[in-house]
Amino acid sequence: MKNLCERRPCRIWRGLCLLVVVGGSLLSAPSSARAQVTEEDQAVDAAITRAIAFLASEQQPSGAWRTDSFGESTAATSLAVMSFLAAGYLPGEPPYGEQIERGIQWVLQHQEANGMLVHRRSHGPMYSHGISALMLAEVVGMVDRSDAVAVRSGLERSIRLILESQAVAKDVRHAGGWRYQTGSRDSDLSVTGWQLLALRAAKDVGCDVPAEAIDRAVAYVKRCSVRDNRGFGYQPGSGQTPTLTGTGITCLEVCGVHDSPEAVGGAEWLLDHPLTLKTNYFYYGAYYSGVGMFKMGGRYARASRDNLVDLLLPTQEPDGSWRARQGSERGAGRIYATSMAVLALAVEYRYLPIYQR
After folding, report:
1. Residue 229 gets which letter from DSSP?
2. Distance between CA atoms of residues 199 and 158, nearest Å
3. What is the pLDDT of residues 233-246, one digit of tens each?
4. Cα pseudo-dihedral 27, 32, 34, 40, rounded to 10
5. Domain for residue 208, yes or no?
6. Can you give the pLDDT at residue 124?
7. Are 317 and 285 within 8 A, CB to CB?
8. Using an 8 Å Cβ cutoff, are 20 and 26 in contact?
9. Three-state DSSP class for 60?
10. Do the domain assignments include residue 113?
11. What CATH number is attached to the domain comprising 77?
12. Are 320 and 345 in contact (CB under 8 A)?
């Protein structure tokens, strides 16, 4: 198998461009700086290569991937599939194309009559649903033509359910968002993030997603911004956290609300309160802060990347996995933690459509 650097000539060009921005000119940049950038890129690529090999080794005979708490899972399977895509691997193409296809098919096989994408329901099925709907939206343009009809049909049904759930009557504080159940009458930013990313990605591939639905969700996300736009909280009125601040920034940037006061204020707050290994829901935060700050660009993107590299590379296990060590993330297991780490580290590759600036 070719290594990731060999398959990504555009990464070399992006590294050279960064040196021009930081050093003034490529020729004037010290040789040690050039070597440092190259070594860091190579280290990230190597970490992703090991993680992908680990994920491939953990796929179940059914085609699914597991969580420790709930067994085979549409969410874990969808996160694993998106990890392969984010690392530059495609359905149907070696070395992992067959595994990607089997994962997609397993998720579609577990779509319920109402469009819900979930297996062995937990207390919050909308988490699994939003993650899996996002995966289908990301992959629909990559699968073979013979599979595209089934993927698009599953995607459209899943998006219809998200829209129906958003339309449930709620008070103004919670309107426009989502929570654990399709009929929930309140909302939270954590669940809302996945549904909104799925809607945005589905709209980008031609699904019928009313602009009003995006606008209402964006308004809810903004209500989760704390006073003076210093980050985002779980619900309107909650205190900010690094994980949810990354979520809020990502939602606004993905939806085209660029450089909003809420996103800029949140990014500034994250510079002063960066993600740490002790952050609650660290891997969730690594994904969302990685994507959100990347989309903000400039010094926000550089600071986030440096922080994630410093946190994730030394904590990768010898077998290529990452392991959540605190809170409820421990129950999600290594597939979840590894997938989220890959999705965070691979954002600069821009292979997933949702990563495009």
Report:
1. G
2. 10
3. 999 999 999 999 99
4. -170
5. no
6. 85
7. no
8. yes
9. coil
10. yes
11. 1.50.10.20
12. no
